[in-house]
């Protein structure tokens, strides 16, 4: 298959619904020589923050000269975004080659979209001579297709409600699924809140003799003066590592400090395995971490959507956008908190689109409360909610609200309404973020 044919074949697998379980992955990997056994891993699960933690680990290790693979999901606009080694995404040619190999091995057998991409990632990484792979779970952990590896370190960023149809309807149930990535004797880094989810993870760590390094106990973060500087403070009795001062995250949002702290704890645990980073490299590296579509602030000239320097954002010919993939209650709460405390704007114009199976009653009203104008639209995907369905979850008498089904038309309308000092926020679904980002900035992977 060429790249286009491989893409088409993969898209056809979307008709095979989400199927949690490891039998298909284990069977396939056995037939191709167990590539997953040839690599060293950091395995990352959690409700929110997985991508930020993962890309931070990759960025810092890559700057130190290591070759690191990164597998994440979902993608914004190109499936190739899921597969990365340091700064390089998988090429079209390599994607097509490996997709063809997988199809040949499978024969008439069908696997899910996520199982296919996971298999492709493991094959690519195994042949690429890597020092480490950062592997992000897709859904849950226990029965996730990535859960066929034995990592050096496991990460559970946090546990909140999401994907209830698959993971359970209580925090404890969801936590049990996430905790399925915990392996015997393998250390676990986590930012879990002190609730029943933490109790579940602590119990499973105890059963598996897996040391648990918890944010707020084994390590913490503290503000350090002004200018968004902070310090990373390990408890040396629990986590042997040195204090790091004068740190700054490139990405806004107080929760990014927590995500970065988790990544630094992982790096401390990787030191005995030969991964050595200087404090100065960590300090400068954190300031370069980028994760597109997550609190991504973009300012463009109104007439041609060309990028403009941040120092010129008061120009009346400039429109500023904030793209954030917040789609569950915890994510939207973090977005709202960041908008309240870290951004200045005259009026908030919100473009919102979401999947119908999300908790619309708890997410949409949160952002609607801040919005001066709310534009409801529909991202691609069979699970996407119609704008009129979204409208049922807000009190439209309290703000200006329009239903515009086509995403590109919703964006045009937002730009028409945007005045000097206004901020256009796009949120609710990564499918929506991907569509809008492609219009504004082009493909992330060329």
Overall geometry comes to globular
SS elements, strand count: 17
Coarse structural class? alpha/beta
**Low-confidence blocks of residues:** none
Structure annotation, total helices: 15
The CATH architecture of the largest domain comes to 3-Layer(aba) Sandwich
Widest sheet: strand ordering = 4-3-2-5-1-6-7-8
Mean pLDDT over the residues: 93
Distance between the termini: 20 Å
What is the CA-atom radius of gyration, in angstroms? Answer: 22 Å
The residue fraction in helices comes out at 25-40%
Largest sheet: 8 strands, mixed
Count of spatially separate domains: 2
Description:
The chain is an alpha/beta fold and 446 residues long. The chain has two domains: 3-286, Mur-like, catalytic domain (UDP-N-acetylmuramoyl-L-alanine:D-glutamate ligase, 3-Layer(aba) Sandwich); 296-441, Protein-Tyrosine Phosphatase, Chain A, CATH 3.90.190.20. It is 36% helix and 16% strand. It is built from 15 helices and 17 strands. The chain has helices spanning 3-12, 23-31, 50-63, 92-106, 113-126, 164-167, 171-178, 196-207, 254-270, 279-286, 329-342, 360-368, 387-391, 407-417, 430-441, and strands at residues 41-45, 68-71, 83-85, 88-89, 132-136, 153-156, 188-190, 212-214, 219-223, 230-234, 244-247, 296-301, 318-323, 348-352, 373-376, 400-403, 423-427. The strands form three sheets. The chain has an eight-stranded mixed beta sheet, with helices on both faces. Strand 7 (188-190), helix 8 and strand 8 (212-214) form a beta-alpha-beta unit. Helix 1 (3-12) packs across helix 4 (92-106) and helix 11 runs parallel beside helix 12 (360-368). It is globular, with a radius of gyration of 22 Å. It starts with a helix and ends in a 5-residue tail after the last helix. The mean pLDDT is 93.
């Amino acid at each position: 298959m060429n790249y286009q044919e491989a893409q088409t074949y993969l898209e056809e697998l979307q008709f095979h619904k989400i199927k949690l379980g490891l039998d298909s992955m284990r069977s396939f990997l056995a037939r191709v020589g167990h590539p997953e056994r040839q690599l060293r891993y950091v395995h990352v699960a959690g409700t929110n923050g997985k991508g930020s933690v993962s890309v931070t680990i990759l960025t810092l290790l890559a700057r130190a000269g290591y070759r690191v693979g990164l597998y994440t999901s979902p993608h914004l606009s190109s499936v190739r975004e899921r597969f990365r080694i340091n700064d390089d995404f998988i090429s079209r040619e390599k994607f097509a080659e490996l997709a063809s190999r997988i199809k040949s091995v499978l024969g008439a057998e069908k696997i899910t979209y996520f199982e296919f991409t996971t298999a492709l990632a493991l094959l690519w990484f195994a042949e690429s001579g890597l020092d480490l792979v950062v592997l992000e779970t897709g859904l849950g952990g226990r029965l996730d297709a990535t859960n066929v590896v034995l990592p050096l370190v496991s990460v559970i960023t946090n546990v909140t409600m999401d994907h209830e149809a698959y993971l359970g309807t209580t925090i404890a149930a969801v936590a049990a699924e996430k905790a399925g990535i915990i392996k015997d004797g393998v250390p676990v880094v986590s930012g879990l809140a002190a609730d029943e989810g933490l109790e579940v993870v602590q119990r499973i760590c105890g059963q598996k003799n897996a040391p648990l390094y918890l944010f707020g106990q084994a390590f913490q973060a503290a503000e350090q003066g002004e200018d968004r500087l902070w310090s990373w403070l390990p408890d040396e009795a629990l986590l042997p590592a040195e204090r790091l001062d004068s740190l700054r995250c490139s990405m806004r949002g107080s929760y990014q400090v927590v995500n970065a702290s988790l990544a630094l704890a992982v790096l401390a645990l990787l030191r005995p395995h030969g991964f050595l980073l200087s404090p100065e490299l960590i300090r400068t590296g954190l300031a370069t971490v980028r994760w597109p579509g997550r609190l991504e602030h973009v300012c463009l000239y109104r007439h041609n959507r060309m990028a403009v320097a941040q120092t010129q954002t008061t120009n009346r010919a400039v429109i500023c956008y904030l793209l954030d993939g917040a789609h569950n209650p915890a994510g939207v709460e973090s977005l709202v908190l960041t908008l309240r405390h870290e951004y200045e704007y005259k009026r908030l114009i919100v473009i919102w689109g979401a999947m119908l199976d999300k908790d619309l009653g708890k997410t949409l009203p949160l952002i609607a409360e801040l919005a001066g104008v709310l534009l409801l639209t529909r991202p691609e995907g069979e699970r996407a909610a119609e704008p009129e369905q979204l409208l049922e979850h807000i009190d439209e008498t309290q703000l200006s609200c329009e239903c515009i089904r086509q995403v590109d038309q919703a964006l045009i309308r937002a730009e028409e309404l945007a005045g000097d000092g206004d901020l256009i926020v796009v949120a609710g679904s990564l499918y929506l973020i991907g569509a809008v980002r492609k219009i504004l900035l082009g493909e992330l992977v060329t």
